[in-house]
Amino acid sequence: MSHVSHNKKALLARLRRIAGQVAGLEKALQEDADCSDVLVQIAAAKGAMHALMMEVLVGHLGEHVVAEPDEAQRQREAEVLVSLLKGFGK
User: Fold this and answer.
1) Given this model, what pLDDT does residue 46 score?
2) Predicted TM-score of the model (pTM)
């Protein structure tokens, strides 16, 4: 079972809050809100997405790299993690 499944309820709660932030951002844009307010909402949504990503990433690292008993599999998982991190920077 995946680490994501272990923490599914909390992750879904985070995701629903993010969806609410994005919906608020859409509403602000539709209503021609002040650009500074829109930027604050964008920053909040970005921060929330980053926090979600970090939570899943930490779980992945702990379960699939640190706790992996097979050295070859641990190396493969570490390589996957490095590849994901490189992609996050784009």
Assistant:
1) 94
2) 0.81
